[in-house]
Structures are given as structure tokens and as C-alpha cells.
Amino acid sequence: MIMNIDVQGMACPSQQQDGQKNYDALDYKSEVKPVWCPGCGDYSVLAALTNALADLNLPPEQVALVSGIGCSSRIPAYTNVYGFHGVHGRALPVATGLKLARPDLTVIAAGGDGDGFSIGGNHFLHACRRNIDMTYIVMDNQVYGMTKGQASPTTAPDWTGSDLTPHGSGVNPFHPLVIALASGANFIARCFSGEPVHLAETIVEAIKHPGFSVVQILSPCVTFRPEQREWKDRIRLVDQSYPTDMRGAAKQLLADDGFTIGQVLYRGDRAPYACKYDGTDSIDVIAEGFRL
Amino acid sequence: MARTSVSVVLAGSGGAGVITAGTILLQAAGAAGQYAYMTRSAGAQIRGGEATATIRFSTTPMQCQDDNSHILIGIDWQNLGKYAREMALSSQSIIITDPAQGPVPESILASGAQEFEVPLKKLARSIEGGRPNMLAVGIVAQLVGLPYAAIDGVLEKFIGRKGDKAMASSRAAVKLGMELAAPLPSFALIAGDATQARTRWSISGNEAAGLGAVKGGIRYAAAYPITPATDMLEWLAPALEKVGGALVQVEDELASINHIIGASYGGVPSITATSGPGLALMTESIGLAIASETPIVVVDVMRGGPSTGIPTKAEQSDLNIALYGMHGDAPHLVLAPNSVTDCIFTTQWSVHLAETLQTAAIVLSDQSLGQAQAIVDAPVDHHFDTRRLIATGVPESGKYQRYAITESGVSAMAIPGTRGCQYTADGLEHTQAGLPSSMESDHVAQMDKRLHKLTQFDYGAHWADIEGEGDTAIITWGSCTGAVREAQARLRDEGRAIRLISIRLLFPVQPEQFQAALAGVKNALIIEQTHSGQFGRYLRSYYDLPPGTKVYCRPGPLTMRPAEICQQLSSGG
Q1: Where are the domains positioned within chain B?
Q2: CB contact, 8 Å: B61 with chain A?
Q3: pTM
Q4: Which of A275, B160, B331, B378 has its CA 20 to 30 A from that of B37?
Q5: Å from A13 to nearest chain B CA?
Q6: What's the rounded Cα separation, in Å, for the pair B69 and A186?
Q7: How far from B272 is each of A97, A247, B226, B253, B314, CA to CA, in Å?
Q8: What domains sit in chain A, N to C, each tagged with a CATH number?
Q9: CB within 8 Å: A5 and B267
Q10: ipTM of the complex, rounded to two decimals
């Protein structure tokens, strides 16, 4: 149901039924050519996302894709859903505000490791905590690509590829999925852009799962981290079941080297946060409360 | 001789109940057909700190504190010496002090006010459950001439739910207070007409801004607590729920501004409220709202700055950041309410303008307006035909263009859910279709669009309040207006005509209207509460002012009083 706010004539569009239309991935793609480098993992993410939306058969106008700043944050314009390309680090609050105000929409936030875990780190914690029903896709390439290759929160401390940190960042990398788990995310998964079928399937699962879903996608930056081409050899696509309790999931995540993909890493059952919108008072009644 | 205005300060440490006593007196004055205006001052302590409530009672509507207070009641004197200036006593004032609480601080006695000793604590103890603050209510009621019946009705509201015993002891304490004050010098007001009470409201500026927001159509708010804006948000939380909206507390101001941008992008008119430090954090994303043409309203209840400054007291020094804080050329709306009641209108109008013009509106209230509680005439009910220009479907001409160049500069906004109009709202410079562009032609076209939609709009007469005639004008804004209005009235009584121009719409500027408002003016005086004269500099940069225009500016935290404005005009103005 669409929240039908009638503010002196202003109303949200009511849901348009589409009969039996079957959407395919192309229905979710725009004609805009990505700014991404040839070989960038994000192309696969875009393809997997559009495949996932087609699989869910969601009308494109019922989906909103919200991002901040960075290479991967350019993704909304490359799709044919409603998009919001905001400022650096603030994808999650924009997406949260949108979803809370318009619970009828399918809201997806997307971005990179710098956008989500550095400048937007606080919002990441609180989005996990708030657990509203949306999906957060992080294309993690362990580097700031748009600013030409600086260390990000997920970069190894001894990576010396940037003039900004010639001796390496010297700082331990952030473990996004452990943090997500500890902060209350309701669905946690890791994917690899080089495994597009698994990726699309996981995005479908993430969108379907109630509450806040975090999908970390290892998405190589071939320009500033060419060594990430080898990720395809390190990835382990496993088919075993993972624990669904927090303790077990934490143990699993901490024991892992960060390259295991496969089954969903954690699936919680916390009820999502939402606003009620059931008040029916008129403003005049409220105003009269001030009368002596 | 009965008076038309009398001012009372109630002082005491935390737990003494001075704010409760003040609120009861304010409501009782309203019930007795008087007007009243209460401002609060508190120490930095979270609980248990000293506090003062200054209540001005008046037979006519007023919007500021008087120059001097007539009565000071100290329930105790802990740490209160430092408030001497705010208490504004004179040799005509009286001080009521409980000898058991030690001597009245020297700084307060320096006013020359006459002391009267009343053993408040001891006498309160003589009544079972009696409290000194209720005794003080009775004393003030007697001194200013409020009938007991008016107090009793209010007690019922405040104390009634605590049970019969509490009511009985409060009643007894108030009555005893009235008896004790009978021999003291009277400051009684001309009796009010109690039947007028139903034509009046009791409201604070922050509540008024919240009401204006809801009246304007706001249905979503994001909140991060900050003094002195929190009570506006606390009022909005249940109010929005009642009308089918919602307020959500979020993790920081960066989140609150972006929440409301997201909600508004979704088609729901949205607001947040904050104070200077929060506004500073929000400025980047206010620029995003401007660039992406997403309507939002941000209320800044200003406090003393810079940095943490003086969180509990007023200043107008966020004018610069509100006008110029955004990076890039980012035209937006800046408005300021100029009275408690006007917080309703200006916030409501701001929502209307932001929605109509698809941009960000910053509303500059301040602590002295926001946290003033006043008995006012029931405000005029304004209505705006607020309609965001919405795209209902793909135009016949072909593809929907979110940022189409139009004659008005406003282009139809598609709300998610609308088939065929999917677009990406963007803080990156963009084409008319909303695609990222760094081309000069797109940049210029979109910059022109965002400015043009604001400058072409007819804001009508609401841009300023222009009151009175005369070849001397006082140009002011925001909370200073109340004191200027009173100064103007006093000078009028002395036979001197002064024109008042209080600017409500600070941006976009209205040069033609301003010039018309100044027609025939030979001398102008600018009044503002900043240290650096921010308002005067703003006026000079956008408007032609008469030669020799004077600026009277001073920082907070002391609010502007009418006498200092009159003095500016008498000293060669």
C-alpha cells in the first residue's frame, strides 16, 4: 500500500497494477554509459542487480536505488528505476528517510567501501541497528577509485600503492560484516562480482528478507588494485549451511579470511522498524489545544 | 495607580519549582484576561542548577521583556548572583527574600531595589505538603492583581491529577502567599476581562513553529536533539503521529538532513529542526537539496555561538551561515519569524515556498522566541494552496525530464511509483533529464534555473512587516522585532513617528519592495543581535540604504530591550 498523504491536494501516486507483465533485465537498464573502467567489477554488479530485479519482477517505478559518492555510487543513473545520487557517505540516511516515508517502495542503497564504512560509517552502524526493510549493496574494492587510488577502511595496512600513505595506512582494516552483525543487521551475505549468478541470487534473497540486509560484494578495481584480478582464484564458493544464530555467525565470520562466499552468512528474524501512519486527527483539533 | 504592564522574576535552584510557578502564573494571567510573556534562563547543569523565570504581565499584547523587572522573588539564592543583569532590577523594584536562604547577592542588591523578607520555607512547612514555590505564586498573584479564582482554575489543571491532598496544600499555600503580600507595595494591573480568555492561546515559539510546519503540510520529520530546538521536535513527535505523519529520531544531524531529503524525494513534505552546530553539519546536504531540487525545511533555533557557545541563550548570529554557508552558488530560501505567533505563519509559509519552489528553506528562529511561552490572541488562520508541481505521467512530447528548463524555473517532480518517469535525482550537475554533466551549457542552464525560480516568484506582502510612517526607519529582523515594536510605540506616544521594517524573507532579497518601503525615509537604524553586525552587512550588500544609516548590534545572551533602542534614536539618530 502506498502511503496516501493528502497535503492540501498533494498526493503520492497510487500503485499502478501491471497485469501479468514479465520484466527482464533490460527493463531495469538505462542507456547511460557507465564511467567505470573496462574490467571493473561493478559492471557485473549492475548486471546482477538488474537480473535480480527481473527475477523479482518488480515494476521499475516501484524500486528506488540510492547512493552516495564514489565509482560504484554512480550506479543509479545506469538503471531505469527511481534513483537518488546524493552526497558522500549519506546514502543510508537518504534511503532510510525514503523507505520510512514510503514503505511501499523497494529501497536499495548502494555504494563503495569508502562511502559506506569511512565517511558514512556511523550511518552504517545505525542502519543495521534500525533494521528497516531495505537492502544495502556495498561494492568493496578496498580502495578509493574515484579519487585515483587511496587506502580505504578495508585496505590492508601494508598496502603502499598510494602517494597519500607511502608507508601503508598502518591501520587495521574494518570488518564490515562483523560490524553489521554486531550492530543488528538482519541479513548478511558476501558475494564476488566474478560469480554473477550467485550474486544475483543473493540480491534476490536480500531484498526478499525482511529488515536490513547487507550484501558485501568483492568487486575488483583493475585500475588501482590490479592485483585484485587474482581474487577469482582466492574466492571459495561453498555450499554449506552457515549458522543462523549470532554467536555462530560471528565465529564463522571471524574465522574466515574474507574470501568465502556462498550461503547467506547470517539470517535474523528481528521485526523491521517502520512508522505507523495511523493518526487521523485534523490539524484544527491540535491547534485548539493551545486555546486557554 | 493600576498598571498596564508589570514584570516579575522568579529565581531559585533546581527543584525549587520556579518554572512550574511561572507557568501557573502565566496561565492564570491568561485566564484572568491578561496577556503574559515568560522567558527562561537556566544554568548549564543538567539538573539541580539555578533557574529564573521572567514573566511580564500586561493588559495589552506584547512581544518582549520590559526594560526592568518590578518584582524579584528568590526562593533561594544559590548561584543566582550572576543573573543580576538578566534580572534587570532598578531602584523602583522590590525583592522578596527568605531570610533563611542567606543574604541577597551583592550584584542583585546593587540595583537599589527594596528588600522584603518573607520566610517562604518556614511558612510553607506550616501547611502539610506546602511548597515555597506555591507561596510565591500567591505572592505574585496578589502583587500583580490576579484574582484567586484564576489561579485555582490553573491549579486544577496542573496539580489536580496529583490528588485532593496535593490540591488542598497548593490552594492553601497560594492563599497564604496572597495574604502575606497584601501589605507589600502593589504593582497591580488594570483588571482584565476573564471572558476574553477563550479568544487567546498559550503557546511557545517552538510549539508555534511546529504547528506552522504541520499546518503547512509537513508529515515527516527527522530529529537529533539539540538545545534550544529540542522542544520543537518534542512537540512535533506526537503532533505528527496524530495527523498521520511521523517523526524519527536519528543518529546525528547529517542523518536528519538526509532523512528528510529522502522522505521528500518520496513525495512527503519534510522538516528538521536544529541549532547552530547542527546547521553547520547540515550545510553540505542542504546544498544537495538545492541542487537536486528536493523541497525541505530546516528550522534553526539559534543560540549563542560560535562552537558550543551558549546553548541556552539567544543570539542572531547564524544569519551568515544560513545565507552564505553553502558551498557553490546555491540559491535557497531564508526566512525568519519575528514573534512567537509569527513562528506559526513563517514556518507554514516556508513549507509552502519550499514545496512550491522545490528548494531548501532555512527558518531562523532563536532561543528567545522558541522558548518564550506567551499568552497571545488566537492567531489568524492562514491558508496556502500548497501544491508541489508533480509529474503524473510521461508527457505527450516524449520523455520525462526532471530538470526541464521552464518559464517559471520550476519543473514537474516525479514521485517514485509514477510509471515511466523514473529519473535519478542528483547532486552532480546534470542535464535537463537529470544525467550527470560537466558541460558549461548544462551548468549555466541549471544554475540559471535554480536562481530564476526563486527570483521570478511573487512573494507578495509577506516578505516584511512594514509598520508605521515617518522619515526615520528601524530595519530589523527576527526576535529583535518585539523590542523594536515596543520602542516604536513608546516614541509614538512621545509624538515621534518611526517606521518599522522587519524583514521576514531574507533570501531571495526583494530590492524593489525594500526601496518602496524606504520611500521618504531620511534616517535608518538597523537593530540586530550579533557581535559583528551580520544583518547590517547583509543589508548593505543587497540594498540601497539612506546615507548615514546606523547599525546597533550587540551579541547575546541578553535579549534586546525597548529602552536601548529608544536610546539609539535619541542619541543623534
Answers
A1: 5-192, 202-374, 389-457, 463-570
A2: no
A3: 0.97
A4: B160
A5: 6
A6: 60
A7: 12, 38, 11, 9, 19
A8: 36-288 (3.40.50.970)
A9: yes
A10: 0.96
The per-residue pLDDT string of chain A (292 residues; one tens digit each, 9 = 90 and over) reads: 233 344 433 444 545 555 568 999 999 999 999 999 999 999 999 999 999 999 999 999 999 999 999 999 999 999 999 999 999 999 999 999 999 999 999 999 999 999 999 999 999 999 999 999 999 999 999 999 999 999 999 999 999 999 999 999 999 999 999 999 999 999 999 999 999 999 999 999 999 999 999 999 999 999 999 999 999 999 998 876 667 789 989 998 999 999 999 878 899 999 999 999 999 999 999 999 999 9
Interchain contact, A98 vs B420, CB within 8 Å: no
Residue located via cell numbers 528506488: A64
Helix (H/G/I), strand (E/B), else coil: B125: helix
Check: CATH 3.40.50.920 for B5-192? no
Residue of chain B whose alpha carbon sits nearest to that of A109: B262
Residue reference for cell 530564476: B452
Q: CB–CB of B262/A97 below 8 Å?
A: yes
Q: What's domain B463-570's architecture?
A: 3-Layer(aba) Sandwich (3.40)
The three cell numbers locating residue B333: 530560501
Closest CB from B222, B254, B425 relative to A97: B222
Are the beta carbons of B416 and A90 separated by less than 8 Å? no
Q: Does the beta-carbon distance from B292 to A86 stay under 8 Å?
A: yes
Residues of chain B contacting A70 with CB distance shorter than 8 Å:
none
**Region at B68 (left for phi over 0; alpha for psi -120 to 50; beta for the rest):** beta
Count of alpha carbons within 13 Å of A37, Cβ hemisphere only? 15
Residue of B nearest to A130 (CA): B250
Interface of B with A in 128-167 (CB under 8 A): none
C-alpha cell belonging to residue B258:
538526509
Class of domain B202-374: alpha beta
